[in-house]
Amino acid sequence: MMKLTTNYLGLTLPSPLVAGASPLADDLDTARRLEDAGAGAIVMHSLFEEQIELEELGTVHGMNVHEECFAEALSYFPRPADFRLGPDQYLEQVRRLKQALQIPVIASLNGTTAAGWLRYAALLQQAGADAIEVNAYRIVTDFSESSAQVEDNLVEIVRAVRARVHIPIAVKLSPFFSALPHMSLRLAEAGADGLVLFNRFYQPDFDLDSLEVVPHLQLSDRSELTLRLRWLAILYGRLPVALAATGGVHTATDAVKALMAGADIVQVVSALLRYGAGYLTKLHADLRAWMENAGYESVEKLRGCLSLQRCPDPAAFERAQYMRILHTWHPSSL
Amino acid sequence: MTHPVLQGAGPQAATATVDANEAVASVAYRLSEVIAIYPITPASPMGEWADAWAAHGRPNLWGAVPRIIEMQSEAGAIAAVHGAIQSGALATSFTASQGLLLMIPNLYKIAGELTPFCLHVAARAVATHALSIFGDHSDVMACRATGFAMLCSASVQEAQDLACVAHLATLRSRIPFLHFFDGFRTSHEIQKIVPLRDEDLESMLDAPSLAAHRARALTPDRPVIRGTSHNPDTYFQAREAVNPYYQALLRIVAEEVERFAARTGRHYPLYEFFGHPEAQRVLVAMGSGSETAAETAEHLAARGERVGVVRVRMFLPFDAEGFLRVLPPSTEAVAVLDRTKEPGAIGEPLFQQVATALYEASYTTQQTKPPIKLIGGRFGLAGKEFTPAMVQSVFEELAAPAPRPRFTVGITDDVSGLSLPVSEQSPEEPEDVFRAVFYGLGSDGTVSANKSSLKILGEHTPYFVQGAFVYDSKKAGAMTISHLRISPHPIRSAYLIRRAQFIACHQFSFLARYDILRLAQPGATLLLNAPYGPEALWDHLPAPVQQGILDKQLRVYAIDAHQLARELGLGVRINTIMQTCFFALTDFLPFEEAAKAMKEQIRASYGAFGDNVVERNFQAVERARDWLSAVPIPSAVTSHTSVPELVPAQAPEFVRRVTAALLAQTGDQLPVSAFPPDGTWPTGTARWEKRRIAQSIPIWDPGVCIQCNKCALVCPHAAIRTKVFPPEAAVSAPAHFRSVPYKGTDFPGFVYSVQVAPEDCTGCELCVQICPAKDRRNPRHKALEMEPLADHLQSERRNYDFFLSLPEADRTRVHLDVKGAQLFQPLFEYSGACAGCGETPYIKLLTQLFGDRILIANATGCSSIYGGNLPTTPYTTNAEGRGPAWSNSLFEDNAEFGLGMRLALDHLSNRAQHLLRMMATEVGERLVEALLHSPQDNEAAIAAQRARVAELRQRLARLRSSPARELQLLADYLVRKSVWIVGGDGWAYDIGFAGLDHVLASGLDVNVLVLDTEVYSNTGGQQSKATPLGAAAKFASAGKETPKKDLGLIAMAYGNIYVARIALLARDQQATHAFLEAESFPGPSLLLAYSHCIAHGYDLRFAGDQQRRAVQSGYWPVYRFDPRRLAQGLEPLQLDTPEPKIPLADFAYQEARFRMVEQLDAARFRKLLAQEQEEIRRRFRLYQELSRLRSLASEPSREEP
To answer: Is A17 in contact with A266 (CB distance < 8 Å)?
Structure first.
């Protein structure tokens, strides 16, 4: 019997294929279909610090600023009893998912300051989330802010979340660190139980007619996988944390590669958004078939087998630029 | 969470600080099962409370949640009530003014059928020469003959209590009750009261009467028939059969009053005397005025004056005996005060009741003394202040040897000489009553802060509190004045504060425009929100303010609340900061306790908006006191700045004499002779009111501008304009005036300018956001950018004056499209609409295209308020003196009103043509032919016709015959005029729909412009049938579950009506074409105009983007249906929207009205959204199919080979 179970963040998952952070978990039926299709866990879309703040301020501005201005209309909106801005809906969805699913539900928190919004972490835990994925990436445009400050801030956020919850924390990282291994170590020390490689971002594009910058996010494609493979392979086995791959996994062989690089789990998003929750069933079937064919009876067996530590040619990961390689000699020959 | 509405008036609260609307609604709600309502000021909040409570699941006395239903009109609401009470339910409704008038036919029925029911009325003036939203008794007095018992309350506590008595008494007596209290003065006044608990109501309710009511219900199990039709043999006797019920009524009410007193300790005799026990002079009055009168009488009596007041609570049936019983035997003279006017009557209604009672008493009882002298007067019409000084003047009149038999008090009537002189020396309020007056902007939250302070003081101290709030007549940059009394005794002063110990000015700019210190008493505290530190502040105060501070020895404190609010991310909301300062400067509560209470209030008010908002306000409480400082006062005036004239010297005489007084807030002092007797006012007065409410204004960069004119198109206030003119016209331009060569081909060699009206701009930024012209090198820089008003005021004011003096473009040369239309002079300018209003750009465009030859019939609503609310009005004239003639009849009748205008125009035009034909030989056959047959289908043709009319006039001037004189009068009717019927969706979709349908079906040449904001905007966002599925609105707080009514499709079904659905900011060209086509269509036209609104819940500066989303998502598909196209073999319907290309969610998420439904229940919202998305798809397919349909005649016949 093929063994797909895997361990992630101290949780036992029935499969390494996890539905990554996306709107897929917003709908209970879709979440159930994902579970039926064998998902190892489900990661909810992010609860955004900035979104919550903007919605709160935008709504209070839109509704309150015109109140008590004109004798005939002292207000313009009803105030239903249970109307409440903030994370309530999200928390409610955590509860619903927990009720509906057997697999772990991982909530996601997105913010960039170690400030008041982190109290949501405790609320997420209270609502029943099995783990929290912290997504703290931001674009630094301030010329006075150093990379050290950026890193310190991230560590601070992780430390603050750690102080508020006892459930596992995974940190979703961007690839843009000068020294990712060191950073990873710091995050692990700050209390991270796992690292998710890597975040994908809105990228600017230009509308030449209106002379406007149009941010957009495209679904990932397979070419993005290789960046993840490199860093999974480098980090694997060197840190006391779990590793997750996300971005560019579209087929079972993509998943296998990520696992071989060292991932504990593989998050799939774009392929599910493109082909629907049912696609996960096919991924599982393909994964099983591949493993059977290749003679791996468990995920555990293939995990990390092509990591920096175990692969035949570590230089393949370390080399950044093309150069002509002398294959018939090696420094170790000295 | 707990909603603030449930606090205070909660069933267990010992006291509550509420207004009468809330207090009355709370009783009516708990004693009712069906509540049918329709919004109308000032009664709307009662229905809204009921709706909010029902949404909270608050039960009535029987444990059920009453069914609240909003109807299409008050006529509909009362009919629904009629059905409900006939069928055994307990029902109530709330209304006022015109709404009450619409109910009258049904009131007769309900009373005639002896049906228990209580209607609560926030009494308000009825529209006569003008509409007014303010309180008097003219509405309720129109219901005297209906058979309803009429009970009047004078205060918030009393309104709650008598509401209860009325419900109890109607059930026992079977006589329906009209319970009324003064609109705004009582309905909106906040007082600390003892609320009635559920168990109070329960203990007083008469169960057998309720059972009897149920037993009378229409039911097929015990069928009866009601509403029969009678003949002369029966009607009269059957009508008299009710008499015993009316005879029993007074006893029943008196018993209920006693039972109420026994239960609560509060006693409300139906007639009550206040004052000297041996009063000789007695004043009789009802409502809030009688509170002031009683307070004053007692004050005078304490000084030994033998005066008194009889307060009437039970107006109908009038208990003459009961009334006479409380009148002291010592009474020698009585003055009856009515808060209504009955032109032509021998006296007003209360006067007549009292007169009859006294007269009958004079011969039915033993008289040993001379008859009582009786006089009657009017007071307080439409919310006019009624003060102790006025009460005193009535008493003085009664003391005169020959008092005026009929009088008015509170105004100066120099026309009929009816008014009583009012002495300036009025009784002072006791010194232990703390009086505070706050001047603020609506948007800065001043009123909310004061309401919160009153609640805190009411609930945390033994003090009694009172709050009355005066609002602006303009919606943008609206000023509010809050009057707060705090007293160790119950407060009965039902008039605004006249001398205050505390004055707060929350906007520094007010100091230069209004006499803010007028109400300050010597030694008072003055709190200023000022952008200057305490040391620098003095020098920035205008000289009169400095003088006032010195003269009155005021103690001055200041805070830069705007700066603190900015730091805290609170934007323009300085309410919490200023409220904190108030508590810091007063000692009703230890500050720490006040701060704690403020935080509780903040959590209650803002909790729903999330922790962020709460946290920021908490910080305001914590930090404001440190920002507050005392201002050192020098010993002499140092400033040279004076308060500028409100109206410039070149304004017309009427504006200088009348309008200027209104602007200076001294309108109360204008005498009767200042006013037109028939409600006819000059137009074009808004231009004289320079409000300067923008913080920043758009500044034009001609180098970047592409001359698209979209800025002028979208401006809601006609405060940014474009012109083309010959270069020589600009030779004397001010130094900073900007212009560039004009790019259009219609005026070769001309120059072009975009100019802002700096003092009229509201700073809404719509123009800047819509501006498509970007600097190609630096696209962040656009042709229009907002810059601080202070930096540009002087230069832009000069520029604008010069701009206005430039000649207007020759209309006959302008190419009629979006750009061209904006070269026409707007004849609707600087209205009082909200900043960023979505309606006014349509009206402005209408006046640009056809303004010099249109009549506008305007339904009541936002457009009638910003269109016709004093002090100044926006419709204006061109250089020839022509412009829109505008009138507002009512809310419900607007289409018919406009149709009447059309009929008159047609008749007068026919008459002119007839006379012309008659006089053809005298005035010249060729001229007559040309006049009769000019197509007048474009600007040039109309100009030519005007020239012919001028020529005709010249020729007629030489003729002496009577037809010549008549034609001279009617000649202008030979120029084509169009009628525009304008109103909102509440009118068109709901209350006025039957009339609109009839008018559209008439085939007559009228044009209907529906400004569709998808809610009742003017009364505060109640749902209409135009409200979309999934949006929250009042009475649809969980999100409307039914789709928007497709008014366009209904109209298209007639086949012969021009119909267009337009969205000006998204599809300006299509909208402009629609206006032109509608006007030229020789039959009825209907324009459905998407109008963004503050009731949608987003920053309206982004309205252009949002309108585009509305169209692109198919939410608001734009189309034109032109029946003329059939004759050309074309499809009449042109769908001007492509297939929807963005999801509805992209549009909906941007607006709080949708987002709040999502916040309530995301899953349900997704369902509603999916439903609406499907509806959009279905509708689009339907329109697509329709747009392929041509006339059947033009389709190839199937029989053909």
So the answer is: yes
